[in-house]
Design goal:
about 90 residues, mainly alpha, 4 helices, about 65% helix
């Protein structure tokens, strides 16, 4: 994430403090009741496509090691990194 202008940073910090104050004053039982009554928010996504990719065995083993440390599947970390790079190139 890039650096935010000071004015925006201050506004976000103020908003975060307001949220913390509001959350601290809420009744836990009422919050749980509202959560149980809430409908799940579902976002439709197009189906993912399968892609075949040939990679060096060393790169795959390093990728698996990194993913294991982060606690996520290595295919998911590959997809995340690829998506980040695509967004970076688009900008």
């Amino acid at each position: 994430m890039g650096k935010l202008p000071k004015k925006i940073r201050e506004r976000l910090l103020k908003e975060a403090e307001e949220w913390d104050t509001a959350i601290a004053s809420e009744d836990e039982a009422k919050t749980l009741e509202l959560l149980k009554a809430a409908e799940p928010f579902l976002v439709p996504r197009p189906p993912r496509q399968i892609v075949s990719l040939r990679m060096d065995a060393f790169d795959i083993s390093m990728l698996k090691r990194i993913a294991r440390k982060k606690g996520i599947p290595y295919t998911q970390i590959m997809a995340m990194w690829l998506h980040e790079k695509i967004e970076q190139e688009r900008a």
